[in-house]
Amino acid sequence: MTPFLQQIATLFYETYGTDIQQMAFVFPNRRAGLFFRKYLSQAAGRPIFSPAIRTISELFAQLSDKQPADRLQMLFLLYHIYIRHSGAKETFDDFVFWGEMLLNDFDDVDKYMADARQLFTNVTDLHEVEKDLSYLQPHQIEAIRAFWSSFRPGEEGASRRYFLSVWQMLYAVYCELRDTLAAQGKGYEGMISREVVERIEREGACRLPYSKVVFVGLSALSKTEYTLLRLLQQQEIADFYWDTGTGDKVMDSDNRASYFVREYVKQFPSSLKLPPEPPHTPDITLIGIPSRIGQAKQVHALLEEALGGRDEMSADEALRTAVVLPDEQLLIPVLHSVPEAIRHINVTLGYPLSGTPVASLMEAVLALRKNVRVIDGKPCFYHREVLPVLNHRYIQATSPAEIVAIVRQITDNNRIYIAAADLQQTPLLTLIFDPAPTTVDVSSYLIAVLQELNRILSAQRIERDADDEEEPTGMDELEQEFVYHYFTTVNRMRDLIGASRIEMSVDTYARLLERLTETITIPFRGEPLSGLQVMGVLETRVLDFERLIVLSVNEGFFPARKATASFIPYNLRRGFGLPTYEHQDSIWAYHFYRMIARAKHVTLLYDTRTDGLNTGEVSRYVHQLRYHYETPLREKLVVYNIASSRPPALQVVKTEETLRRLDDFLSGGTRALSASTINTYLDCPLKFYFSSVEKLKEEEDVAESVDNRVFGNILHQVMEESYRPYCGAQVTADLLRLAADEKVLTEKIQRAFAELFFHTAEPRPLSGQSYLTGEMIRKYVRKILERDRRLTPFRYVASEMKIHHPFTLTDGRTVNLKGFIDRLDEVRDTIRVVDYKTGTKKDMHFKTVENLFDRTDEKRQPAIMQVFTYAWMYGDRSNGMPIQPSIYYVRHLFADDFDPSVYRGKEKEQVTDFAVVRDEFEDNLRHCLDEIFDPSVSFGQTLHAKMCSYCPFADICG
Predict the structure, then answer these.
(1) Sign of dihedral through CA atoms 653, 655, 660, 663?
(2) pTM of the entire predicted model
(3) Fewer CB within 10 Å, N- or C-terminus of the chain?
């Protein structure tokens, strides 16, 4: 079918010829003007002078003597005006949100020519409503009455009284804002358009240098736009052409799409008659995809199908194909999905400045200011704000070695707050981690950082270009463009804030800067009239394409779910003719039905997922097509082939290299196996391979709270310090009371925290979560000492005793074993090997020694196996005294039935002498170690899935 703009261009050239150059054509957007020029050139077939091309906003600007005001400047001005009228002490931080809301409301009031005095008045006398607002329609008056009838004298609550006090002030605020802007020769969009039409009404004529003004394809006119059209119509210099598609759906009275346009066609008829267009139903395919990004990937398949195996799509065919993005965040995935055979792409959407790498870096830099603390007289930055800055690729590229060293120092030493001096290792980092800037200086601070960053990376890029390097680090030309735009935005912020003399917090500054960057888009370079068209919904106005691919055809995206925040209640908006959500519904419906009206092939993609806020519901327009218009739809559902079969078990065969590494645990090697590593093998041989053979470790993170491992280490150290003075000596109850002294315990706990958690030489008082954890450790230590007093007198042998012992395998080779025995003491002629456990209490009973090494047993007792290993290793040093393995589960210390003893067999016999099970234990340990060093036995996965829950290598083996 013939595009609407081509019909207009052909009709006007055939009617007026070259006289068309004296006319002005007004379109909804500039892109429509470009396409119109193209069609006009084709109709003329020779060079001619172009008529004036305008958008409706540009026409108002041409008719006005005022310049558009800067929005941020208006926000500052509005704040000063509000404070003057209210007398409130409200800060700008509190005002900024609803200040932006008021600017939107004032713009609507003027665009829709509402009587501001009547709107911002407390109409408590409902009998006066009809007299004062007699110019309104009955349904509008009823809406106003419905709102104000809820405000009965004497019944207002605090929130209603506050609303009324602000409401009655808004007319004065509105008037002063307009007067101040007018004195500066500026105005917001609604104010400018209202003044234009009111001046034309007063003067009775509009002087324009055109023989005719032709309005083409407009929709959803504001009251000022409608009035301008009516005034120009009365002067007989205006002509109107409404894009109603093929008429069957856009003009359907049951369709919201016709809400505006049916009235416009009657009020503003066309002078020339366009050729009739027969009803047309496009070929529509509906595709459901269970993925947001999957929609973008499906674009590739659809465009490949359109190519039909050809090496290249012709320029004309590409121009007649459009990909429409209601969700503009899919722009980059879609661009990556376009086939190489489509050589030219025209992107009407700009790349948002807020989505650039420099924006993410500046956001992280601003976040640094939120948690600056002074510790020991030094300004310090919070690690959660520091690491995103240091790990940003721009910062990494400036001084890689220095940055890596700083990050390692932070993580290795668990630095929660880092002194600024420790971070200022390069000129750029000195600027970034400057603790001095106040809110007033934030703009200058950001500008200095951007300038230094740009200087360093530009120099590096020049050096790389000279060496013909193609490293993906640093910044390319496009990203330098991003930095330039961000720099000019911050510069503008500095000038505006300086002129307004407004104080604000860093949070508010960051929020305003983010708003500014969201409104700035960096255009893609391209030829608008060549190649595949990738555009947003609004850019499709008045344009027609043969092939349409529309993504995100879901409720919430098409139509959009966005509701504009407003201080004016719904009923008053409806009563005074201001736009409401019904208004938006009609606009979106018009865009949809007009867009598909002349297309041959339409593909609608939607996300079928139902997670979070996504309902997976297809747009209402699809249901209307299916049920109301009974339009044939080809429906498809894209599914992903997900294998449900269990993945094959992962095994690591013992290669020569693996065996060489295992040899390091044998006699003559430098390493030794501990009881905990043997337990790891029994739990999962593959985990043993990763951690002990390959020496893989988890990436270190800064821990703000004490985890279970560190908690246990701190407890062990405090207990070691408590008993250190008594090693080899007789311990009495009085000595243990001295060890439990509050002051002494506090010092020990602080020293343990400094060494094991804070990684500092100087102990310091604990605070926050560390204080609470310290108090828990104090409680456990005091309880251990209390339990030990019941055993006095006894001889304390050693704490944290490091022990090594060789172990002979079946084949004669010797394995190095090592261990740290938490505690050795001699109680009533028995040596106790004590192991402290800070985890959940496990069963202290085992059936047989063989069960301690049984990997198939989910209830295997690794704690008993570990303390038995220590008992076996210490056996040669006991001088014939019985050895009793004991386990202190500190969480169970407070129970009445606390018992550290180990029990065996069905009869639950207490193991008071390890010699009873020593030989059997040694045989089972030998069998386990033989298996570890057997070249024919691979390292396989665990038999129990629950072992994978907290395994750091779970992602590797799946």
Answers:
(1) positive
(2) 0.75
(3) C
